[in-house]
Model the fold of this input.
Amino acid sequence: MPQNSIRSGGSYTLYTMVDSVTAVVDNAGDVGKYASLAMWDGKPHIAYLDETNDNLKYAYFADDLWHTEVVDGTNSTGAYPSLAFNSAGFARVSYHDFENQDLRYAIRNPVTGWGSMVVVSAGRVGQYSSLAVDSTDLPHIAYFDEDNDAVRYASFDFYSGLWTHNIIDDD
Done:
């Protein structure tokens, strides 16, 4: 059974029972911190922090090449990303904006590119997010609320266009 892992320095490594293949995904500066790996259609996709430019980046393997994109280029954003896909294979990323201490969510449209929104901005929130997309393509995010030392859960309500938030554990 194959195992996937991220190596430091922005490299993606695929290990199999027989041998391993290593490829440099991005080496433009200090990249690869907080990497999140997801597979779609048998190909690796990675969301990670470009610490040199304080940007959130996304890399994917297509046409026998690695391609990289800036997801969010505002300064000091992109920590703790979590990568998932909707049913059409469009990438979604939850992440922490460490300049504003917000939890953000980005959506990739292959035609128009990346767009992002603030999920919650009350205090120091959004660290260590974990994203899942359900069968109706709606996002669900677990994250850490540092001010209240709590694990929280956010989900998007399609009908209202709003995020709902719940405390999971504040002990």
About this structure: The chain has no helices and 15 strands. Residues 125 and 145 are 4 Å apart (CA to CA). The radius of gyration is 16 Å.
